[in-house]
Amino acid sequence: MHVNLTCLYKFFFHTLHKLLKTPDSCAIGWTCQFSISLLYEKVNLNCMKMNESSVFAELKISFAGDSFVGKTSILKRFTENGFDSVRPTIGVDYLCKTMFVNGKHVKLHLWDTAGLERFKSTTHVCYRSCHGIVFVYDVNCQKSFQSLKQWIEYAKLCNTKSNFVKMLIGNKVDLDEREVTEEEAAKFAWSNSMLYLETSAKTSKGVQMAFEELVRKILDTPDLWTPCVDENKRRLHEMEDVSMCERLWC
Fold first, then answer.
1. Where are the alpha helices (DSSP H) in the chain?
2. List of residues 6+ apart from 124 with CB closer than 8 A
3. Which of 75, 107, 120, 141 is deepest in the core (most CB within 10 A)?
4. Distance of CA 240 to CAs 50, 145, 196, 243, Å?
5. Helices 5-20 and 25-53 meet at what angle, rounded to 10?
6. What's the average model confidence in pLDDT over 211-228?
């Protein structure tokens, strides 16, 4: 919340001055109530403006990979900090969450896509104009790892941003049935210029870190995104707030 302290001091001093000059207790009560109402409305106004302008960037991120690798579970863990058995996604699903990264509020538009071949005709739009795409495989399923090349090629074909950030996530590390080694996955990620982490949606291991690294990489990629609000406009709004404070309270 952004409130100019100088104006607040002037406001309280002005209110106190009125109280000292008002002998009637009813008038004192009315003055207090009126002054507090003004302050309350002003603070609410600043809160609303802050909420609208505090988002530094809005990013579109999609998830890709075979069915049953845990894409939906990862998103549920990240957005709701929950986990339960879920059915395969039918078509697409959409979630939204704002996170604090590098001292900035970043709003994430998250697209969960079906891993079945028959839904590709409806999921391709989710990869369009993505700032980042997360490719998920099950560390306990070699087949899901081998399918990654097809998912990457399909995402490149659909996405209009050629410099989008790619992340590889090996999920379900809580299970003791590993078929894909970390070395094998790391080599694949390096050869495809991808970030790489392993996670467990069930225990939450690595989930938060994965999103933080992805968002940082996107923000560090030139020409991939633009701030939501121009800094000059932000300063102009702040000056308008100060001017309004002075007109109301001084």
1. 5-20, 25-53, 71-80, 120-127, 142-146, 148-158, 182-191, 207-219, 231-249
2. 154, 158
3. 75
4. 13, 55, 45, 5
5. 170
6. 90
Q: How many CB atoms lie within 10 A of CB 100?
A: 11
Length of the chain: 250
pLDDT digits (tens, 9 = 90+) for 60-116: 999 999 989 999 999 999 999 998 766 666 667 889 999 999 898 999 999 998 755
Tell me how far apart the alpha carbons of residues 8 and 14 are, in angstroms, rounded to a whole number: 10
Both structure tokens of 29:
């009560």
pLDDT in tens, 170-201: 999 999 899 999 999 999 999 999 999 999 99
Q: State the DSSP H helix or E strand holding residue 126, giving kind and residue range, or none if neither.
A: helix 120-127
Provide, for the chain, the percentages of residues in helix, strand and coil under a 3-state DSSP scheme, each rounded to the nearest 5: 50, 20, 30
- Consecutive H or E run containing 249: helix 231-249
The Cα 242–Cα 244 span in angstroms is 5
C-alpha span between 142 and 72 (Å, rounded):
20
DSSP code, position 118: G
Specify whether the backbone of 206 is left (phi greater than 0), alpha (psi in -120 to 50) or beta.
Answer: left
In a 13 Å sphere around the CA of 212, the CA atoms on its Cβ side amount to 8
SS3 113: strand
CB count, 10 Å around CB of 187?
Answer: 12
Task: Report the 10 Å Cβ neighbour count for 83.
Answer: 17
The CATH number assigned to the domain with range 53-224 reads 3.40.50.300
